[in-house]
Amino acid sequence: MDKFVSIQLDRNSPEPLYVQIYEEIVRLIKEGVLLPGEKLPPIRKLAANLKVNTVTIVNAYKLLEKEGYAVSRVGSGTFIQSHLKESADLPVKNDSELEIDKIRFDFATASVPPEYFPVEIFKSSIIRVLDRDGGYAFAYNESPGFLPLRQSLEDFLYEEYKIKASRDNIHVVSGAQQGIDIISKALLDYGDTVFVESPTYPGAVDAFKSRGAKIVEITLRDDGIDMEELLSKIRSKPPKLFYTMPNFQNPTGISYSEQKKKELIALSKKFGFYILEDDHMNDLYYSEKPLPLKAYDEENRVFYIKSFSKILMPGLRLGFLLVPSDFSEIIAEVKYFSDIASSGLNQRVLDLMIREKSFYDHLTKIRRIYLEKWEIMTDSLKKHLPSPVTFSVPKGGLFYWLCLPEGFYSMNLYAGVIKKGIFIMPGDYFYPDQKPSPCFRLSIAQVPKEMINEGIEYLSHAIREFLKEFSFIPIKKSNYSPLL
Amino acid sequence: MDKFVSIQLDRNSPEPLYVQIYEEIVRLIKEGVLLPGEKLPPIRKLAANLKVNTVTIVNAYKLLEKEGYAVSRVGSGTFIQSHLKESADLPVKNDSELEIDKIRFDFATASVPPEYFPVEIFKSSIIRVLDRDGGYAFAYNESPGFLPLRQSLEDFLYEEYKIKASRDNIHVVSGAQQGIDIISKALLDYGDTVFVESPTYPGAVDAFKSRGAKIVEITLRDDGIDMEELLSKIRSKPPKLFYTMPNFQNPTGISYSEQKKKELIALSKKFGFYILEDDHMNDLYYSEKPLPLKAYDEENRVFYIKSFSKILMPGLRLGFLLVPSDFSEIIAEVKYFSDIASSGLNQRVLDLMIREKSFYDHLTKIRRIYLEKWEIMTDSLKKHLPSPVTFSVPKGGLFYWLCLPEGFYSMNLYAGVIKKGIFIMPGDYFYPDQKPSPCFRLSIAQVPKEMINEGIEYLSHAIREFLKEFSFIPIKKSNYSPLL
User: Fold this and answer.
1) Which residue from B91, B18, B99 is spatially nearest to B52, judged by alpha carbons?
2) CB A119 to CB B141 under 8 A?
C-alpha cells in the first residue's frame, strides 16, 4: 500500500471522491509509481486505507477500466492496463464528462434515511431534559448507564419480548458495535475461537480479530445455521463464543426456526460456549413477532445486544446489553476503561421517549413504512427477477439475499449495474476472507417505495444482460448452496 | 469475592450506599458467610465488584470498624473482628444514627460541578443544529469524526498552541478514556511494555493491561519524571509506549520543565518508543500557558489526546486525538470496530460552539473561576498545613498532591477525616499495585471557593491530631521522595 500514501482527498470538494481517487491513481500511473500490469490493491484494503466506502473504490476502479487505465479479471482483481491507450491521457474533469450516472436506485445502503428519524420528538424531549436536569445531564454517568433508563429498558424487554431481565444486568453502550467490542474484551483472549455465521457482519469479525481470536465460519441455511456442520466443528474444537443474528440476519435476512434456537442454547450448555446475539432489528417484523434467542436462554449462556440504530437513529449512538449476571461486573469494568460511560444526555432523552411511549409510537411508524416497502419489494422480485437468480423472502428487517448461478460473481454484476445507477452490495464483503461470491444483498432501507419496482425492473434487465454476457462460463449445479 | 455475590444494592433508596454495603456485610457476618478474623477484600476490588466508588467501600469499612464488626490494621487491610461486641448486633437504621456527618468539604472529586457547565449555550446550539441539519444530525458519521469539527479542532490547535495539525490526523473520540483505549488497541500487543508515571491515572493502566501489556512505573519528580530512572529502565528494556500527562498531572499537579519535554522527545526517537500525551486540562493554566508535549514533537512520536471533560463537560463524551500520520489509517479502523463513530449530534454542537467562539468564552470563564479557587487554596495550604506535610503548588489544573511524613498512610487519614465530613483522595488509588501511600490528592473541582479556607483549616487540624495519634511510628527521613 506504500505506493498509495501520496493520495490526497478533499472531502469538501464538489468532485466525487471516486473521481478524486481515479485522478490520483492516474497520476501515480503517469508518475511511473504504478507500473503496467501491476495489480491494484484489494478494494476493501484501499477503502480502509483511504477511509472511504468500498463502493467508492469500486467506482474508481470501474472508471479506470472505462478510461482504459485498468482491466478487471473475473475473480482475480483489477490490474493496470499493460498497454495504455493514447486517449486515456486526457485529464478527467468532472462527473458529467464521465457519462456515469448518479445512483438512482440505492439497494445497497443499510442505514435508514434521515427523513424517518423522530427529530421533532427528540428535540422536544431534549429541551425538556435540559430544563429538568440542567448541568446534571452532562455530569459523569455510572458506567452501566443512567439508572432510570436501565429500568425503562428492563420494562421494554418484558413488554416487548416477555424477557424478565434485571436492570442490574443491563448495560447501556454506545451502539451495538461497542457492545460487540466490550463483550470481546471481557470474554476473548489471544487464540480463542469464535464461530460466526457465513455470511456475517464484518464489523463483528474485526472486533473478534482485534482480540487475537480465530474465526470459524458456519454455513447459514434457510432456517438458521447448518446444525450438522456446527456440531462437527464444535467436536473438532468448541468455540468460546458463537456470534449470531437469529432474526432477519445481516446480510441474508434469514431467521432461525424456533427449534434451531432451542438446539443452539442446548449445545451452548453442553459444550460450554457462550452466544452473542446481535439484535439489530427484531422489531421490524412483518408478520409474527419473533422472539430473540435470549428469550429461550434458561441456561444463562446468551449475551444479548440491542441496537437502536436501525429502529431509532444511528447517530444517537445508543444500544444496550443484557448479560449473564456473572458477567455484569466485568462488563461494567470493561465499559469503564473503554469510554467511562455513554452520553448521559442521550440516555436521558431515550429514557423519556420510552417512558412517554413516543418510542413505541415511532417503532410502529417505522414498521409500517418498511412493511409497505417489503410488500412492494417482494412482489417486484417475484415478478421481474430472472429465474436462475435465487432468493428467499425475509420475514422482517431490511435485507434480501440474492444469488447468481454458480460461476457468476456479484462483484462483476455490481460493477456492471453501478454504471446504470443501480447500487447493490456484493456478497464478498460479508465473508471474513472476502472471497468472491455469487450472492449479493439488496436493502430496502434507502430506496423510496415509489422507486422500488422500477429499480428491480432495471436490475432484473441488467442481470439478464449480465448472465448472457458471461454465459460462456459453465454453470455447475451440484453441491450448490444458495447461501454460498 | 464469591462470598459477596449476594450483596444487593438499591441505588434508588434514600439510604446511602455505604450504609447498605455495611448492612449487607453485617448480614454476611451473621449468616456465618464471613468468619471472625477473615480479611475483607481490597477496597478497590470490592468497589469494582459492587460498581461503587472506592470511597463508598472505605466508608462502609469505617462503619464496620466503628460498630465493632471489623478492625483495620495499618498497611495490611481490614479484618472481621475476632471477638464481636454484643452491642454490634444492633441493626443500623440510618445515617444520622450513625453520627457520621455528610460530606461538607469535598476535596476528592475531580469532576467539575454541573453549575459550571455551559448548559444554556449548549441548549441554544443544539436547537440550531437540529433546525439546520434535521435528521442528518443523527445519521452515521465517518469514524474519524464530523469533518467540519475536525477542521475546527485543527484551527483550535493552531490558535491555542501553534500546533500545525492536519485534520486528516485528527480523530474525534468519545472522551479521553476511549482515546487511550483506541491507541492501546492500535499499538499494543500481548507482552508489550508501557511506561507510566508513578503515580498516574488508573483508568489508563486498566486499558493498557487489557491489551496484555506489562506496566513499568517511573518516579515523578517536581519537574517531570526522573530522567535517570527512565534511562536506566529504557536500557533494561525500551517500552512500546510511554504514557504521560506533561502539564498539571493527575494526581500530582506537576508540570514537566521544557527541558524534560525536549529530552523525552529525543529519547523516544533514539529508542524507538511512542509517547501518549494525555492533555486533560492544559487550558486551565494560571500563569504562563504551557505547551503540550505535542508542540515539541518534530519527530512525530507523540499521540496527543485532548479531553473536553474538565474544561467543558464530561457528559458530552467528546475528545480528540492528534496522531502521527502513519497511524491515521489504523486509528480510524480501530475506532470503527470500537463504536463506529462518536455521537454526530454532539460533534455538530461542539463544532458550532468552537466556530462561534462561545467555546473560547467558556474556557476563559472556567479558567477565571479556578484561578480564584487556586489562589485561595494555595494561600490556605501555606497558612494552615502543619509543616511535616509537604506539597508543591501546581501551575494550573485542579490538583494538589500532599504527602504525610514517611510511615503515615493516607488511607488512614482518609478514614479519619471522612467522619468529620472532609473528603480526600488517598494516594493508593494512583499506583498500579494500589500500594499504601503517605500521599493524597486534594482537588479544587467541587468545593465552593467560600468553603476552601474553612475546609483546609479543618483538614489541617485533623492532620495534626492524626500525626499525634500515630506518632509512635518512627519517621525515617532518608531517601524520602515527597512523591512516593
Assistant:
1) B18
2) no
Q: Which residues pair with A426 in a beta bridge?
A: A440
Q: How far is A450 from chain B (nearest CA, A)?
A: 21
Pairing of strands B302-307, B274-279: parallel
Q: How far is B7 from chain A (nearest CA, A)?
A: 12
Of A111, A144, A338, the CB nearest to B178: A338
Cis peptide before B436 (omega within 30 of 0): no
Domain boundary assignment for chain A: 2-89, 135-356
Are the Cβ atoms of A111 and B175 closer than 8 angstroms? no
Retrieve residue A368's grid coordinates. 409500517
Residue in chain B closest to A179 (alpha carbons) equals: B339
CATH of domain B361-469: 3.90.1150.10
Is CATH 1.10.150.20 correct for A2-89? no
Hey, are the CB atoms on A343 and B315 less than 8 Å from each other?
Answer: yes
Q: Which grid cell sits at B314?
A: 464530561
Say whether B315 and A203 touch across the interface (CB within 8 A). no
Question: Which numeric CATH code is attached to B118-358?
Answer: 3.40.640.10
**Chosen from B2, B340, B353 to mutate, greatest number of chain A CBs within 10 A:** B340
| Residue-level pLDDT, tens digit, chain B, 484 residues | 677 877 888 877 767 788 889 988 988 887 777 877 778 888 888 888 888 888 788 888 888 887 778 887 766 778 887 654 333 333 333 333 333 457 899 999 999 999 999 999 999 999 999 999 999 899 888 899 999 999 999 999 999 999 999 999 999 999 999 999 999 999 999 999 999 999 999 999 999 999 999 999 999 999 999 999 999 999 999 999 999 999 999 999 999 999 999 999 999 999 999 999 999 999 999 999 999 999 999 999 999 999 998 889 888 899 999 999 999 999 999 999 999 999 999 999 999 999 999 999 999 999 999 999 999 999 999 999 999 999 999 999 999 999 999 889 999 999 889 888 999 999 999 999 888 899 999 999 999 999 999 999 999 999 999 999 866 554 444 333 434 3
Task: Give the distance from residue A49's alpha carbon to the nearest chain B alpha carbon, in angstroms.
Answer: 6
Considering the four listed CATH numbers 1.10.10.10, 3.40.50.2000, 2.30.110.10, 3.40.50.410, the one that applies to the domain covering B2-100 is: 1.10.10.10
Given an 8 Å threshold on Cβ–Cβ distance, is A48 in contact with B334? no
Closest Cα in chain B, distance from residue A173 (Å): 9
Residues from chain B contacting residue A190 (CB–CB below 8 Å): 190, 212
A348: Cβ–Cβ under 8 A, 6 or more apart, which residues?
Answer: A129, A133, A137, A146, A148, A149
Alpha-carbon distance values, B396 to B373, B374, B391 (Å): 11, 8, 14
Query: What would be the CATH architecture of the domain defined by A135-356?
Result: 3-Layer(aba) Sandwich (3.40)
Q: Do B317 and A337 touch (CB under 8 A)?
A: no
Nearest by CB to residue B177, choosing from A141, A147, A337, is A337
